[in-house]
Design a protein that fits this description.
Order of helices and strands of chain B: HHHHEEHHHHHHH
Radius of gyration of chain B: 19 Å
Helix content of chain A: over 70%
Number of strands of chain A: 2
Strand content of chain B: under 5%
Shape of chain B: globular
Number of helices of chain B: 11
Oligomer: heterodimer
Largest sheet of chain A: 2 strands, antiparallel
Shape of chain A: globular
Distance between the termini of chain A: 34 Å
Largest interface: A-B, 39 and 42 residues
Strand order of the largest sheet of chain A: 1-2
Number of helices of chain A: 14
Chain lengths: 335, 295
């Protein structure tokens, strides 16, 4: 057999370019938001942070296809590390004094990557549901430690100390926070775009579609998943630091519970885990619905998440973005 | 070991075994569902919460004894599970694995938030005179509601085994678990069977909720903790392994009690999680491997 099988026809490239334009368009909308809705900056900041978190989750959950329901732990590592290192009375003595939030954030990201390396190193031998179950357990163990340790403020949590200014900007000013959250979203978006067209991205998608097939091609699935997890962890911890500054005071209950992990995962899944902008769109959509429901039903705002996830799993398995790409492909093949 | 510390140990073990029995009941429902359909039900604890709130509502409205609520909660749980499988999960088709995880998460959110809208977030309990009664056995005190819960668990599990191994329906369920296509070819209506199995699983969770009500406070997210316990139990025993789930439940109850008594009560929930992680990593097929017969 010398004749190779005919290569499948190339996908229409227009779609990929469209992706970049779509990303830029979404960023432009986000940039315009504070000028139009200057009074609703709180909502804007938290939505952008969650959009970034959903995209960070998606590097592992979407590209590598490993559903984590423990990302709250990584969010918590970022938030707690930054806050603890910035609080004079809590910072470990050998550091000689509180650290500026950006150094604390970097250390938090490194810790999250280390955690992901150990966690993923141990669990990526497991497949599918087993990995998901392990993420729940790891996150719950970390939550228990945070609740029971004196240093982390126990169940009462932590207050954000006075923070030094960043280039003369007050970190507790909502406009500054909006700018930082925007930068966070831009960074995660950039990372996902770069991954998409990289060797890593193709390897991850191969692993997601068919792990044995990927191995036959010389890809080491466990290593690829580990790289995705570490990237996802670093970005999630970064988002955690930002979220902590936004909240100004937090407790294990607001950062480390299972529903937080579930919320992040659902945003990505509802938006579409195989697309780049899906998680961002899912986050914006769910945050908006959540906000509306909060005013109508007060606390039961997660009800809409439940209804939406059912509708999406039943009628749009590739999420909201999946509906559009399917339409796009049809157009592409019709020509 | 002196007399006092021996009594303390026996007391801790008894407490652990009885709590473990309840875990076994919850885990059995989850394991049954996984064994037949390969679905990990993330709403399991929320179905338990439904059982608790049915008991609460009947007690508040009709002053009905909590244990009589079983007559309502078990069939209601069965019907709910049947409908969910028939009209939601069955439609996922070949996307069942990943899709069912998300779908059951969604169902869980709908259940807990509906309970929140109906009953409020405040933890509520019921006052029955025997709630705090205890029973003495050689210096060991056993709470009466916990003992009743233990007996209820044994009855339910024995009943399930009779159903699975002594009836035509049970044979059909086992055939569907082993090979759905083969069963279908033999004339088993597997869609129907799967709906029945999901109904049974949910009924088991609801029964556990009823049995827990005299012992605990009910609040809309009470189930979350029990979903985790059910996962721990099934992983300890091996996913889909029913006798394993029973032993896994007892093991979890005893680990928690011993840890809480001898190490620290603050980390009560952590001992099970650590055991769970260890088993997941070292023996993903469960503590008892393949030596125990599957469903």
């Amino acid at each position: 057999m010398t004749t190779a099988a005919p290569l499948p026809a190339a996908r229409p490239r227009a779609l990929t370019f469209g992706n970049v334009w779509l990303s830029l368009a979404l960023l432009a909308v986000m940039l315009a938001y504070p000028f139009v809705f200057g009074k609703a900056l709180n909502f804007g900041v938290s939505t952008l942070i969650f959009a970034g978190l959903a995209m960070s989750w998606n590097i592992l959950g979407g590209w590598a296809g490993q559903t984590s329901l423990g990302h709250a732990a990584l969010l918590g590592v970022g938030a707690y590390t930054m806050t603890l290192l910035a609080t004079p009375e809590r910072v470990p003595a050998f550091l000689g004094g509180p650290l500026a939030p950006w150094w604390g954030t970097l250390i938090g990201m490194v810790l999250a990557v280390l955690l992901a390396a150990v966690w993923g190193g141990l669990t990526f031998r497991l497949r599918g549901s087993y990995f998901t179950l392990s993420t729940i357990a790891v996150a719950l163990v970390i939550r228990l430690v945070a609740i029971n340790s004196e240093w982390t403020g126990g169940a009462e949590g932590l207050f954000m100390p006075e923070l030094p200014t960043l280039f003369g900007l007050d970190l507790f000013d909502r406009k500054v926070e909006y700018g930082l959250a925007f930068a966070f979203v831009t960074l995660t978006l950039l990372v996902t775009h770069l991954i998409r067209r990289s060797r890593l991205g193709y390897a991850l998608q191969a692993v997601r579609e068919d792990e044995d097939g990927a191995r036959a091609l010389g890809i080491d699935p466990a290593r690829m998943k580990l790289v995705a997890f570490m990237l996802s962890a670093a970005l999630t911890a970064l988002g955690g630091s930002l979220y902590a500054i936004y909240l100004q005071a937090f407790e294990p209950h607001t950062l480390l519970e299972l529903p937080i992990s579930v919320q992040i995962a659902l945003m990505a899944v509802i938006g579409g885990r195989t697309s780049i902008q899906g998680p961002m769109i899912g986050a914006i959509l769910l945050a908006t619905f959540g906000e509306v429901f909060r005013t109508v039903f007060s606390s039961a705002n997660l009800l809409i998440y439940g209804v939406l996830i059912l509708v999406v799993t039943l009628f749009a398995p590739n999420g909201i973005m999946g509906l559009f790409t399917r339409g796009g492909r049809r157009l592409g093949t019709a020509r | 070991m002196d007399q006092a510390s021996l009594t303390a140990l026996l007391q801790t073990l008894a407490q652990g075994l009885l709590t473990g029995g309840l875990y076994a009941l919850i885990g059995t429902g989850l394991s049954l569902i996984f064994g037949v359909m390969r679905v990990i039900n993330f709403a399991h604890g929320d179905f338990l919460a439904i059982g608790m709130f049915i008991t609460l509502a009947l007690f508040r409205s009709f002053n009905l004894d909590p244990y009589l609520s079983l007559l309502v909660a078990a069939p209601a749980g069965f019907a709910l599970g049947f409908v969910i499988q028939r009209f939601v999960l069955a439609r996922l088709g070949d996307r069942l694995g990943e899709g069912s995880m998300l779908a059951t998460l969604g169902i869980g959110l709908i259940v807990s938030n509906t309970l929140l809208l109906t009953f409020g977030a405040q933890p509520q309990n019921i006052n029955v005179p025997y709630a705090t009664n205890t029973f003495q056995l050689g210096g060991v005190q056993i709470s009466i509601p916990l003992l009743i819960a233990g007996l209820g668990t044994v009855t339910a599990i024995v009943g399930l085994n009779l159903l699975l191994y002594r009836t035509e329906l049970g044979r059909a369920i086992r055939a569907t678990a082993q090979n759905p296509l083969g069963a279908e070819l033999q004339g088993v209506k597997t869609t129907q069977i799967q709906a029945i199995v999901f109904g049974l699983g949910v009924a088991f969770a609801a029964i556990a909720g009823v049995l827990l009500m005299p012992l605990l406070y009910a609040f809309p997210t009470v189930g979350e903790n029990y979903t985790t316990k059910a996962f721990i139990v099934t992983v300890l025993g091996g996913l889909g392994n029913l006798p394993g789930a029973v032993v896994g439940g007892l093991v979890l109850g005893v680990i928690e009690s011993l840890g809480a008594f001898y190490v620290s009560n603050n980390y009560r929930d952590a001992y099970g999680l650590v055991a769970f992680l260890l088993v997941l990593l070292l023996r993903p097929e469960g503590l008892f491997g393949r030596t125990v017969k599957r469903v």
